[in-house]
Structure formats: C-alpha cells, structure tokens
Specification:
By secondary structure, the chain is an alpha+beta fold. It has six helices and ten strands. The strands form three sheets. Strands 1-6-7-5 form a four-stranded antiparallel sheet. A four-stranded antiparallel sheet has the order 2-3-4-8. Strands 9-10 form a two-stranded antiparallel sheet. The structure holds a DNA duplex (16 and 16 nucleotides).
Length: about 280
DNA sequence: CTTTGCACCTGTTGGC
DNA sequence: TGCCAACAGGTGCAAA
C-alpha cells in the first residue's frame, strides 16, 4: 500500500470533490477484500451525505452524518489499493471492486489488485472500533515525542526499525519511510530499541516527521499501482536515500548501501552513516 | 507480556 | 524468448 503520504495525498485529492455530496448508489463488484465488504454496505450508504474525510493511521474515514449519529465508511488501501474520483466513470477494469456514485454521477472508485485492502461500515463511534482503538500515536501529533518513544521501548530488545513499524507505538511508518527516517537520524535499523538514548530517539522523531512531510509535500511516492486521486501519477521527486539502493553509494559518504532482511521485509542502510 | 513468522492475493522482476 | 521463483507498499493473528 501506499504508505501514509500516499494515503494523505489520496484524502486531500478525494475529499474536496465529494464532501457535501449525497450517495446515489453504491456497487460492490467483489466483496473479497481483507475482510468481506459487508453485505449491507450499499443500502447503508444510499441517500447519505458525505460530511468529511478523516485519516487515522493509514485508514481513511468517510464520515456520513445522520439524524442520530455519524457513521463511518472505513477504507484501508492495503498494499495496492487506490481511490479515484471520476466525473463520469469509465468502464470498469479488472480489480475495480467498488463504485460509490454521488450526485451528478461523481464516482468514487476503489481498485485493489491484491485485495489486501479494507472497506468496512462502522455505525457510531469509529474510534472504539477494534481496528482503530489500539492504534498508537499519529506521527504529526504532539503525542509522538522522544519521551513517549523512550517509555514505549524500555526493556524491549526489538530492533528499532521493527519498533518504528509497530502500529501500537506510532502509526503510519511503513517499510520505505522506516528505512529513510533511520538514515536521516543516523541510526542503524538493527539497534535494539530499548538501548537507544532519549537524544537519539528525539532525532528519530524529527527524522520521521521530516521524511513523511517531505513525501506528502511531494505528493506521495511514485508507486507502480498508485495513481493520484486526481488521475496524475504521484510524483515523489525526492529520491530515496537508501530504500532500494543496495550496493549504490551513500549520498553522504559514498559507502555502499547494505541490504538485509528484518521481519520478512527489506532493510537498507549505510554502514558508515548509521550507527 | 514480547517477539517471530505466516497468511492473505496478484503482478512484476530477475535469473537461468 | 520463456519459465518460475522471489519479491513487492500492510498488518492481523497464531504460535513460540
């Protein structure tokens, strides 16, 4: 999936076109996502007006205000999901699984080749939903700071990269940006999280924020399957410092970038700059 | 409790 | 050129 910058870019692309619009119809062509798309989703959506689009971690929360309560369409893009808005939807292509048609035939289309994504309907308070409630700090919130990381990692021997990708601690840091942020902070991904000083964790907090912010500013990474919600391919101009650069010279010191595996995911780092 | 590894699924890539 | 194994943005869950 898109990582957090792509999700945020999608939110910003999709929301302005749809907020305030009423759902005319919803079509689910394939319910087999990570969890089945609920059978009653079409009927639940019909006639409802979109009040706003929020993001929590990599979940998009489409808010539908009602007379009694606000209900939420919860969407996660998984690894390969994408959302696009069409003024007039073209013919459906393979892997286009859901269409939500608003006033004026404006269509929100969900596509996801690998179907690792999620589309659920939550009645009432979404914050208490089992997928949302356990989530850790938002990287741009004040809750995410060195003290919190320090407390959350004491006595833990997990590698800092895996801790960074642990959603119960901090959300929204996927494989690419975990690699990039650790490079910016000069921290070796294999370092035991519980042994890092508060100062180094503070540097990591800054690095995570700046890495994500740069990517959001650039409109999200260029991903094979990602298409910006407006239809333009995401153009992440800021090249990766380490991700995918095994054997290539470090942009800072020229040392060859190393690749290892941690938790079945690829890790890249500079053996000289990252200690 | 923490940590590890698997599972879900399809498409692309790289090596032989 | 063709085939096939390995790998790819995520993350819940079971097992150790």
């Amino acid at each position: 999936m898109p990582e957090l910058p792509e999700v945020e870019t999608t939110r910003r692309g999709v929301a302005p076109a749809l907020v305030g619009k009423r759902v005319v119809a919803a079509h689910v062509y394939d319910r087999r996502l990570r969890w089945p798309v609920p059978a009653g989703l079409e009927r639940a959506l019909e006639g409802r007006t979109l009040a706003g689009v929020d993001r929590r971690s990599k979940y998009l929360l489409f808010r539908f205000a009602g007379a009694l309560a606000t209900d939420t369409l919860l969407v996660h893009l998984g690894m390969t999901g994408s959302l696009r808005v069409y003024k007039r939807a073209p013919a459906r292509k393979p892997h286009d699984h859901v269409d939500i048609v608003f006033d004026g035939k404006l269509t929100l289309r969900y596509r996801d080749p690998r179907r690792f994504g999620t589309m659920l309907w939550i009645e009432g308070d979404a914050a208490t939903h089992p997928l949302i409630a356990p989530l850790g700090a938002e990287p741009f919130s004040t809750a995410f700071d060195a003290g919190m990381l320090h407390r959350g990692t004491r006595g833990r021997r997990v590698a800092i990269k895996l801790a960074l990708m642990d959603n119960k601690l901090v959300v929204g840091v996927g494989n690419i940006y975990a690699n990039e942020a650790l490079f910016r902070a000069g921290i070796r991904p294999t370092k035991a999280a519980g042994r890092l000083s508060r100062e180094r964790l503070a540097a990591l907090v800054d690095a995570v924020r700046s890495t994500l912010a740069d990517a959001i500013a650039a409109g999200g990474s260029t991903l094979r399957d990602y298409v910006g919600s407006g239809g333009d391919p995401g153009a992440f101009q800021l090249g990766y410092a380490v991700y995918g650069r095994e054997g290539a010279p470090c942009r800072t010191c020229g040392t060859r970038i190393k690749a290892i595996r941690q938790g079945q995911r690829s890790t890249y780092y500079c053996p000289r700059c990252q200690t």
